[in-house]
Amino acid sequence: MLAGNRSTIALVLAIAAVSWQVALIWYPGVAGAYQTETVFACGGAPYQSSGEMQGFETSGTATKDGCTASAAVGQEALALEQDGINSENDGATAGWFAYPPVGLGIVRAQATVVQTQTLGGAYDARFQWDGTTSGVSPIANNVNPLGPVSFDTGPNLWAADFGFALACVQGGGCPRQGGLAPSVFVSDIQLTVGESPGYEPAFASGSGLWSQPGWVRGNDWSLGFAASSPANAGICTESATLNGLGLPGAVDVSASRNEGAWHQCWAPPFSAEPINTTTFGQGSMPLTLNATDAVGVSNSVTKTVSIDNSHPVVSFSGPTTASSSAGTQYVTATGGGSPSGIAQLQCSVDGGPMTSYKGATARVPVSGLGSHVVSCLAENNAVDAAGVHGSSTTPATFTMDIGSPTAGSISFGNIIHGLKCKKVTEREKIPAKWVMVRRRGKLVREHRAAPTKRVKVMKCRERFVKRKVIEVVKVKRHGKVVIVKRTKIEKVPVPPQTVNSSTKRVSYGRGATVSGILATTSGTALAGRTVQILTAPNNQLGQWSQVTTATTAPDGTWSATLPPGPSRLAEASYAGDTTTLPSTSNAVMMVVPARIKITITPHQLPWNGVLTLHGHLAGGYVPPDGVAMRVLIGLPHLPHPYLAQSFRTNAAGAFELKFKAFGGGHGVTRYPVWLATTSNESDYAYGKNSSRHIEITFGRHTPKKTAKGRTIRSTRSADTGSGSGDRSAGDGQGALVLAPTAAGSTAPRLRLADARPATPTVAERPNAGHRRGVRTRPGVSRRRGVLQPWWRCRAGVAGHSSGVAGRLRGQRGRQPGSCVLRALLRRSWRARTVTTLRAAAPTTSPTSIPGRSRCCGSGAMGRPRSSICARCLGASSGTSSLTAVPAAGRP
Asked: Mean pLDDT for the chain?
């Protein structure tokens, strides 16, 4: 019997050791690297039990559990005692052993109290452990006086079992023991247990947020899962995090763990609700489940959760106004603004039922005259716990006006052949609509069909004129085919036309009248509509503004007056209404010439004097770089005005200019001076124009009264513009000097101050009392008594032969090369003589005279051609004396 017991214990220990060697084949001697738990046995309250220790008896040795609650304090122990009655075979072994479940291993074993008695000889006691690491530690006989001892295997074990045994080791067996029987007492056993890799906590039964696919939203989500310990150590803590933030419902039962068993914790399944996803952000984020067993080994699993708590928005594209002749119109609605994307759009027209459109875009058809409202809601792909998609907070709306197309015109002046209009009755269809009505005390939506009504509209048509048309036809008369003419009257339509064109020139400070027509493209006149008249200064800036409005007449015509202003572009604009579309006419242009205000000082100055011009451009709209201007002088011998100076105004349009008109000249004459803009400048809002002409006198007058016996000088002024003194002899200017004669003489004598050789003879002829042949320069009054000499050669003056011939009309001696002097003296001159002196033809050709072509031909710019040319009077040598003969009668 004893032999059978010993074999049974050995077989159990061997099987446990083999199974743990298989389970722990991956962990050779590295137990210190693992988390551990401590299992207590027979350690007193609260561990006053054998715990995980299992007893094995033999026929002669019994196991006694002294760790019950009834055991006396200090007497708790697990004992192996030989009964002293039965004998045992050699090798019979009794013991107390602990066997951790698969996945756990004993890494250390300790016993605080170990007592033995009557050991040695036939019986032997020992501590024993088997597994990846195994060992035997004999227990010595420590009966009094030695007292109890402790035991510790030390760390770094990895054993599949641990316990202590009492065995018969006598070769012939162990007879019944008399006296004190052999026994072993062990109490306060502590087993430190580790967990093998691969036996971490496992997760199962995930629900709620964990099991939801796709995008989620909302604040009423739940989360649940259950964790288990494959090593049978028990789950102590459970928790979950979303985007790194802890979720409510964490479980921790570590404080109530049972350290007297391998399975020490019994955590319930994790459950958290409600979970508000709005506090964790938007987009994809990790959801992590955590669990920790009694050994301290933790494990976690992670899943990506996509959160979208946004509200999608809807945008529209399409025409805001459309023509009724264009057919059904479509409004494109596009959803967006959600990370999860758009699942569908729900749209309605004019408050009708919603229509679903899958996807992010929808083409909504709209038709019928009038104003239509399209309303749309968007739903994204995120759902809440109830499966409801996120949607727009409020519907987005889009308004489209479908009306009849209109056409308008604008022009200057009145309209001829206007449309012939009359009122007619037409049927107009009113769009169907949804209304709220009360039925049996409740508000319900009711669809009202599209009714029709009779309306009076103004219909217009073109006017017709009758025209006679003659046709040539063949007819059969008396059996013969003859050709005859037949006359018939046809009606020919005459379209409306405007009298004036699209461009009109208006004086500065004046307005203009514009007129036009407004009608539909089908010919229906639009009466009582407001037309806006828009204008913009013609300076390329496009500064359009409304200047006035006009109301159309029953036949669709209108007229308005544009106020004074700069050159402008004008157009008529119609804003449209619920049944007609807006339209804009063509642009017309009103050209306003610039207003140039100037003053010129002085009005009389020497030939080389300086003119000062002050002025400004009225009306404004001057570009920043000013306006180009020209100073013009009207010279009678030029076909176009003489350009004296070019300049630009400042940014305000003002200018001040000082310049010399001519470098020098002879005589006294008056020329008109004025300013003109260069051309129409694109950035200046006025047309080209010129200022008023101001007469300027060039050359100063000599005194009108002279003392008797004094020298009377000619009224022409010298090149320097002084005109106050005689020129010296031989200066080449041919100054005319009137000097008194010898005593007793009654006739004054004229002489040339310029003494030249080879002066021709002079023939005298008294003036017959008339002023024939006396010519003054254009623009100069004779009443001023100005002496205006004209020395002209018939030949040699380029470009003025016809003018010279006209001036010599009625004179004698028109032989080639003759020079004529016509001098008109002041009326106040007592002598009252007008003397015409004619010099005989020179003996040499005029063209051979030195300096003739320079003096008598074209002079320098600004030098008047009326200058006296003394070189034309003489050809060779000698002197000349001229004698004046008093004329009889009136001068």
From this structure: 76
Q: Write out 572-599 in H/E/C secondary structure.
A: EEECCCCCECCEECCCEEEECECEEEEE
Question: Is the previous residue joined to 582 through a cis bond, with omega within 30 degrees of 0?
Answer: no
**Residue ranges of the alpha helices (H) in 716-851?**
801-807
3-state secondary structure of 857: coil
Separation CA 238–CA 210 (nearest Å)? 15
- For 708, residues 6+ apart whose C-beta sits below 8 A from its C-beta are none
CA–CA separation, 613 vs 801, rounded Å? 36
3-state secondary structure of 780: coil
Q: Between the CA atoms of 241, 245, 251 and 257, what dihedral angle is there, to the nearest 10 degrees? A: 100
State how beta strands 694-698 and 604-605 pair.
Answer: parallel
Share of the chain above pLDDT 70, in %: 73
Who has greater pLDDT, 871 or 608? Answer: 608
Task: Find all residues with CB under 8 Å of 607, minimum gap 6, and list them.
Answer: 662, 663, 664, 665, 666, 698, 699, 717, 719, 721, 862
345-354, 399-408, 646-655, range with the lowest pLDDT = 399-408
The token pair that represents 585 in the structure block:
């006419």
Stated as kind and residue range, the H or E segment containing 4 is helix 2-23
CA distance 70 to 74: 12
Among 694, 690, 692, 677, which Cα is nearest to 605's?
694
277 SS3 class: helix
By the 10 Å C-beta count (0-12 exposed, 13-18 middle, 19+ buried), 597 is classed as: middle
Which token pair is 521?
Answer: 């493209």
Instruction: Give dist(CA 368, CA 452) in Å, integer.
Output: 13
C-alpha–C-alpha distance, residues 352 and 540, integer Å: 49
Burial of 781 (0-12, 13-18, 19+ CB in 10 A): exposed
- Please report the pLDDT score of residue 96 as a whole number: 93
CA distances from 223 to 206, 270, 273, 381 (A): 7, 8, 7, 21
SS3 annotation, 712-737: EECCCCCCCCCCCCCCCCCCCCCCEE
H-run or E-run covering 3: helix 2-23
Residue type at 451? P
What secondary structure letter does DSSP report for 794?
S
Token pair, residue 334, equals 């596009």
Query: Which of 765, 776, 737 lies closest to 881 in space, CA to CA?
Result: 737
Coil, strand or helix at 257: coil
- CA-CA-CA-CA torsion sign (102, 106, 111, 115): positive
Alpha carbon 347 to chain centroid distance? Answer: 30
Q: Which helix (H) or strand (E) holds 537?
A: strand 530-537
Look at residue 74 in the predicted model and tell me its pLDDT: 62
Cα Rg of the chain, angstroms: 67
Contact yes or no for 485/472 (Cβ under 8 A): yes
337 conformational bin, left if phi > 0, alpha if psi -120 to 50, beta if neither: left
Does residue 704 contact residue 731 with C-beta atoms inside 8 Å? no
Q: Supply the pLDDT for residue 302.
A: 94
b/e map 283-295, b = 16+ CB within 10 Å: eebebbbbbbbbb
pTM: 0.50
What is the structure's pLDDT at 61? 87
Return the residue matching tokens 């254009």: 778
pLDDT at residue 592, as a whole number: 92
Question: How far is it, in rounded angstroms, from Cα 385 to Cα 273?
Answer: 11
The pLDDT assigned to 25 comes to: 36
Give me the residue label for tokens 């809601």.
Answer: 377
Q: Identify which of 653, 884, 610, 586 has the alpha carbon closest to the alpha carbon of residue 751.
A: 884
Q: What are residue 23's phi and psi, to 5 degrees?
A: -70, -30
Distance from C-alpha of 348 to C-alpha of 355, rounded to nearest angstrom: 6
- What is the Cα–Cα distance from 260 to 67, expressed in whole angstroms? 12
Q: Could you tell me which of 808, 812, 835, 818 has the C-alpha nearest to residue 891?
A: 835
Length reported for the chain:
891
pLDDT at 143: 60
